[in-house]
C-alpha cells in the first residue's frame, strides 16, 4: 500500500548505495498506557530509513503519532515493539549528535539568547572559545547578532525559533529533528523561515527529519515527503520531491510542485473519506 | 495640573486627610490619650521614647530575620527532597501539609515551656510560620518545569546536577520569592505574638507593657515601627526578586 515514487530524489546529497542510514526503523510501534486502563495504540508499525544528507518531511493529521515518532527517533521515548538503529547501531537513549528543534522554541526565559544558544556547549563541555565563536557565527547567520544579549521574551516568535535553531546547531549535530518548528507562526513568517531553513540546510549539509502540518512547507523543504495515516500512525506514502535546489519563493509556482501537492492532498483526503 | 501629577499626589493626599480627621476627632470629642492618642501625641511619644523603640525594634528584627533564614535553610533542602524523591513525596509531604493546619502561634506558650525565656522560643515560632509557605511554593516551583525543557536537557545528555542548576533552580526562583514574601509578613506577626506570650524585650513586649501602663501613645508608636519593619522587609525581598527574576513567566 506504499504509494511510492521514491527513488530519484534521495540522492540529493552524497548517499551511495552502501552508505549507512542515519536512522533505520523496522516494525517500530508505540502503545501508551491509557488513562482509563485501556492501552492507546499511538503508532506503527513503522518502517523508515533516512539516508545521510536527506531532508525527510512528514505530514499527517493531528494526533496521528507524528511527535511520538520523532521522540522515538530522538531516543526520548521507549519503543513498544520493533527495532531502531542510529548509524547502524541499536539505540535506546538520546545522542548529542542529534539536534532537536521543538514545536515551542523551549528557550530558557532566565538566560540571554547567547546563553541559550551556548547551553549544549556547557553540557557537553565544549571548549569555551570555540563554542563562543560558533554561537556568534550562527547568530549572525540567522540575523540575531544584535539580540545576543537580550532575553528571549524580547524576541518575536520567528526570532525565538531562529534562536532555537542556533542552539540545535551549536554542537554541530549530524542529524536534525524538527517537530513543527514553525507551527506557532503566521503564514508569512513561516514561509520566510522555511526558505531560510532550506538555504541554511543546503549550506550546512545535514540530514534532517521534519514534522509539519503544512503540505507546502513539506514540499518546499523535503527531498521526500512521508504521509502518515490517522492514529495509529503508519507511513502510507513516501513521495520523492524532484524539484530543483536551491528552492525559492518561486518553487511553489513550479507545475511539479502543484502536482506533488495535489497527489499528497488526495492521499490524505481520500483516506479520510473511506 | 495634569492627570499624572494628580495621580501621584492622590495617595499622600488621602493619608493627610485621614490623619487630619483623626487629629480633629480626638481633639473635638476630647478623647483621652490612653484610649486613642492623636497622631501628634504618637509622634511626640515616638520622639521621647526613641532609644527604647530602637533597641526593642532591633530585638524583634533579629528574631524575625533569624527565624526567617533558619526556615529558609530548612525548607529548601526538604523541598528538593520532596520534589525529587517519590518516597519522600508520598510519606513526608502529606505529613507536612497536615502540620501546616496547626495554628502555629498557639504553640507559643509551649515553646516557652520547652525552651525557657531566651530568644529561642520566639525564633522557633517564626521558623514555624515561615517554613510552610516557603516549602509549598518551592516544591510547586520545582514541579513546574515544562516537560519540553526536561526533554531538551535529556536530549543533550545533561547529568542531573546540570538539570538542577541550569533548569530546575532558575525555574523555581519566582515561586521561591512568592513563598518568601508570604513568609516574611507572617514572620513579623509570629515574632510579636511570641513576645506577647513571654519576653523581656522586643516591640511586642513594649506594646504589652506600655498598654498595661496606659501609655497608649508609646504602644501606637511601637506598632508604627513594627509596620515599618514589616513593609521594609517585604520590599527588601521584592528588591531581590527584581534583581534575580528578570523574566516574565
Ligand atoms: N505520554 C503520552 N501518554 C499517553 N498518550 C499519549 C502520550 N503521548 C501521546 N499520546 C497519544 O498518542 C497519540 C499521538 O500523539 P502525538 O503527539 O504523537 O500526535 P501528533 O501527530 O504529534 O499530533 P499533533 O499534530 O497534534 O502534534 C495521541 O492520541 C496522544 O493522545
Ligand atoms: Mg505533535
From TrEMBL, chain B:
CDD domains hit by this protein: TM_PBP2
Ranges for domain ABC transmembrane type-1: 57-235
Major localization listed first in the record, in broad terms: membrane
Gene3D superfamilies named in the record: MetI-like
Regions annotated as coiled coil: none
Compartments, as annotated in UniProt: Cell membrane
Keywords: Cell membrane, Membrane, Transmembrane, Transmembrane helix, Transport
Transmembrane segments: 65-88, 95-117, 123-150, 171-197, 217-237
GO terms for biological process, alphabetical: transmembrane transport
Topology in the lipid bilayer: Multi-pass membrane protein
CC annotations in GO: plasma membrane
Protein family membership: Belongs to the binding-protein-dependent transport system permease family.
Protein name (record): ABC transporter permease
Natural source organism: Methylobacterium terricola
